[in-house]
Amino acid sequence: MKQPELSIIVPVYNVESYLEACLDGILQTDLTNREVIIVDDGSTDTSAQIINRYKQRYPGITVYRKENGGLSDARNYGLERATGKYVIFPDSDDLVHAGAFDKMIAEAERQHADIVVADYYEFSEEGKHYRKDRYDKAIIEKPLITEEERLHPLFLIDVSFAVWNKLYRRSFLSENNLTFLKGFWFEDLDFVFTAFYRAGKVVKVNEMLIGYRQRSGSIMKNINNKILDKVTIMEKLGVFLDKEGKIEKYRRLYDILFIKMCFSVLYACIMNRNDKGKSKELIGKVLENPYLKKILRNYLSRYKELKTKEKYYF
Fold it and tell me: For the whole model, what pTM was predicted?
């Protein structure tokens, strides 16, 4: 049996309001020599019934149902069963534009790339107020081949840490034992950073092919202790770079990214209107993070040193 060209892995959990739009976008593409793997991660709404309807219309779809284990677990479950040359992980509430996968595969084949990044835009939960000005900032005109070329756009957040707008060569993921970190929110941070670090070549399709739905119930709008996972994963990335002997090489860029991620958590807490007490507690925990305090102390010390030199110079 011929190997499928692409495995499309769709993790599903309680997305009855958005699932049909997502599947319609995926299934409007040519499914010849492609496999669609839907992993129902223990949905308790009508998502299972919706999946069944699509399975009847498209018998080639493969459906798995499992106990709820979280997004990472569902993605890993699908990845373990995927057989395609390439793999992609669209979120079940997003939109995939016609021809999106074709364009990404064509670029991967043309450039012999391990990862292909596509631009995306954001839109509201109701599907209105499209914001086509929001997409990956970096217009990458040439392949990213060296380690520095691959990592700099991530450190500067010119290329997003999202998993769902990227196509991966499956053999590359397998050879590097790349799977999703279970039990954490913001698992994309760990997966994408490690993938970019290990990749031989990363290329970009400078066209908005994916629509990212901003939901009212998103992680950043529902504040609890799990929002601190963003900081925890940043600490894990620091340990990873240290083990690779690269932390000093990228210290300044890593520190800047660490600060940005901490500040994004602080911003989410400040903007939260539902539980001010919890927000205050979480803000305190972020500000007490030992590494953040160390970074800020070091930069403040350097700033004072520069101001002193400036004073005596004039």
Answer: 0.89
